[in-house]
Every structure is written in C-alpha cells, then in structure tokens.
User: What shape does this take?
Amino acid sequence: MKNFIYLICISILGTSCASTRNSSAVRHPRKVNSSSDPAFLDNIIIRSSGPARPEIHKPVEMKGNSEVPGTAFSPRIENCSALQFKYAIIMEDEVEHITNERLISFLEEWYGIPYKYGGGTRMGIDCSAFSSVMMGSVYDLNVPRTCREQYQIGKKIKKSQLSQGDLVFFNTTGRVSHVGVFLGNNKFVHASTSNGVMISDMEEAYFKRRYIGAARIR
Assistant: This one.
C-alpha cells in the first residue's frame, strides 16, 4: 500500500515539473517593428540618421570702410593682434573697430616721437609736419606743410561729421596754430609740445575750448 501511494506521488511530481518546464520554455513572439530601425527597449526606438557630418564654419569676413586706404578686413576678436588691443585701449574703443592696419603701424612707429618746432623727422617733429607725414603715409594724400595752409585747402565739416582721417584744428595762440588727425571715438593724434606724438580726447577741457574747426582733405 505504501509503495502504491509513493508511486502516485512520484507520478504527480513528474507531471508538475514537466508543466513547469513547458511553461517557462514558452517563447512569446516579439513584436517586430515595421521599419528597419532597431528597438532596444520597449517603446524606445533609436533611429539612424546616417553618417555624422562634421560642422564646417566658413570664416566670416567683415569689410571695414573701403573709402579709407589701408583698411583691412575686420578680424574676429580671437584673431586680433596685440597692437589692435593696445590702440583699442588707448582710444577707448572696441577692438573690432580698429581695422586700419596701415594706421595702426604708423601710430606705433611714431607714438612718443618728441616735439620739435620746425622738425619733420623721427628725431623731432611739429604738429603740422606730423599731420602732413601721416596723411601721406596712411591715406596717400599730399598735404601742405603749415596749419593755416592745411585749414584753407580742406572742405570744412561740422564736428558731428568727423570721421577717421579728417584734420582737426585748434587756436592756441590767437589763430589757427595746432592741428591733429581725427581717429574716431572723439580721439585724435597730434604732436604736442609737451609729450610729443600722442593721442588725445577732443572733449578734454583744453582742446574743447580751443577747437575752431575741421577739414576733410580726401
């Protein structure tokens, strides 16, 4: 009797295990995506967009004032030279506005040259000789030697119309007696009796009181 009951139990256990194995072995059909895109997780599909293409940035060139000789393409700020930064600081202007390479080179060559009345070289130079040399070197213009001659030949313009390369005149002795070249941002370069060739601001009290006009040569 015990053997009979033991055989029945063995039979029941065998059937149960077989059912369990069959159940665990069932392969549920995977839902096939109609597209060729692979599906890695439920409801998440990664789509292929083809081979990656490197992003190419074409250099952007911005032209400066084409009417001013020596004006080069305006470089991006990361490519600006040390001289551009130097004169941007001196002129209190944006470095991107300092685009005339010929002008920058001339200023660097002459900045600090001492004043000498009647002089016209790098050993010493006066204001009208300096403006004459600068207009010829930077702007390819022949300008007379004296302040009064320079004032007479140029086209008179208002202060609000000033642009780079215009001549600005001052009365320091009761008549037209001092001249400089306008650079922009209210700044002009000139040969001063005290500091030689330098850049000054037209809004400084001394120059503002003595300013008498401007002339455009080009």
